[in-house]
Specification:
By secondary structure, this protein is of the alpha/beta class. It has helices at about 30-40, 55-65, 80-90; strands at about 5, 15, 20-25, 45-50, 65-70, 95-100.
Length: about 110
């Protein structure tokens, strides 16, 4: 869905912008599937991807996405810790929303 911004308070004019999405996922097959699904959405822009929490933190700080898709089980530290570090960082200027992914093999 497009991100809608008002030009000024009480102004009916709206600017439509693409939703900016970052993906932090270490499983390449899942990453490919999500990228393919997002590629078919004209109102979504994938701004970057990372396979580790360390690289993901840098990605979030540099791109300030609207939404971040984050795997819980990343190789260096958890996705939950990544989100906590990002929210606590001085680089957190965006109101990024997080979609948490996890998998379980029985």
């Amino acid at each position: 869905e497009f991100v809608k911004l008002r030009c000024k308070p009480n102004d009916d004019r709206v600017i439509n912008m693409k939703m900016r999405v970052a993906m932090i996922e270490d499983h390449s097959l899942l990453c490919t599937g999500i990228k393919n699904a997002l590629a078919h959405k004209s109102d979504i822009q994938l701004v970057g991807e990372a396979a580790t929490a360390t690289d993901g933190l840098i990605l979030l700080q540099e791109t300030q996405p609207d939404v971040a898709i984050v795997d819980v089980g990343l190789p260096d530290f958890t996705g939950i810790e990544l989100i906590q570090r990002f929210r606590a960082s001085k680089h957190n200027r965006a109101e990024t929303k997080f979609l948490i992914l996890t998998g379980y093999i029985d």
